[in-house]
Amino acid sequence: GVLDRFSQIQPKLVFSVEAVIYNGKEHNHLEKLLSVVKGLPDLKKVVVIPYVFSRETIDISKIPNSVFLEDFLATGKGDQAPQLEFEQLPFSHPLFIMYSSGTTGAPKCMVHSAG
């Protein structure tokens, strides 16, 4: 699962929605997120993005080092959310990591570059 993949790269920051809607049903992801967070000892911050439920109804108090997206963005420039800025990076700069399905062993990560 997620932990099999993330434990290979030991992220410092994780973004996650609190729930999803699948097949017309709401599925809360906070318990799954908590188990992932507990399995990543180097994790510094968990940013929770309200997607299905309103922020006022979401309890993230059990998830260590967690904040809502709005609060995370506000830390950039006082009380105002910072403007995102484009930064030009080298052609070979890592852009994202994709994982194999893991059907013949542990999932393997593949780093894709910006170019």
Automatic annotation (TrEMBL):
InterPro entries for this protein: AMP-binding_CS, AMP-dep_synth/lig_dom, ANL_N_sf
Single Gene Ontology BP annotation: lipid metabolic process
Keywords on record: Lipid metabolism
GO molecular function, one term: acetoacetate-CoA ligase activity
Keyword match Lipid metabolism: yes
Pfam families xref list: AMP-binding
Domain AMP-dependent synthetase/ligase: 10-114
Gene3D superfamilies: N-terminal domain of ligase-like
PANTHER family in UniProt: ACETOACETYL-COA SYNTHETASE
Protein's UniProt name: AACS synthetase
Gene coding for it: Aacs
